[in-house]
Structures are given as C-alpha cells and as structure tokens.
Amino acid sequence: MNSSLTVTRPAYIRLVRASAWYDLAITTGFATPWTFALVHEVLSSMSEGLGLGAMPPLNPMTTLYATLMGSVVVVWSLLRIVRTQRVHGLFDGVTRMLFTAWMAYALVQGAPQIVWGFLVVEVAWGVLQLAPWLRARIAAGESA
Question: CB-hemisphere CA count at 13 Å for 93?
Fold first, then answer.
C-alpha cells in the first residue's frame, strides 16, 4: 500500500471521489424498479454464462430492497462527488466493510458466485479508504 496516501493529502480526496464515481456507475441501475429489472437480467445472463449460478427470480420484495439500496447509494455517491470531505472516506470505508460482511453471509447461504466479484471490489475500496485512518490513529497513539 502506498504509505504517502494519508488522510490529509489531496490524493485521499481524489480516492474518496473516485470511489463515489465507481458507486454511481455501478448502482444507478439499482435505483428504480425498471432499471433494476434490466440490471438483474444482465447479471443473471452473466452469472449463468460464466457458470457462477443462477440469480434468484425477481419478486416485489427483492426489487424493493434493491431499489432502496440503489437509491441511497446514488445519493451518497452524489454527496461524495459534489461535497467531498475526508471523513466521507472513513464512513464509506466502514460501509464497505459492512457490505462485505453481508455479501460473505449471502455467499455462505448459497448466493450466486458472481457476488464474489462485488465483494472483492468492496474490500479493495474499503481497505484503501480505511488504511490511512488506521495509520493516522496508530501514529497518534505512538506519539502520545
């Protein structure tokens, strides 16, 4: 990991903004029932085509939860793009670790293996955003 990436450097703000752009690109399709149906179809085809298992069929509750998640993540992404703050990286990193935990839980419960791709990306963004905060906390403890 690049030790020059610290919470106080402009590169960290760029990282937080880049993670927001990634989220916006990935989750915009989850924000409405109509776009989620298309995303679900694409993910289903990809997952089956790669031999990673079939996606569960759409139902009203799955669509509700997917669109709730998509809507919240789109708004959170826009906030991080328009009003980027260092602390957004901390909160986003924590959120990504939570998402990772729930994806791992879903995989253990039999979710399609395509979820692994999303899990790996969540871990990467989470580690990149949390590591500078952890280093700063360790450095503060060492200097105390």
Answer: 19
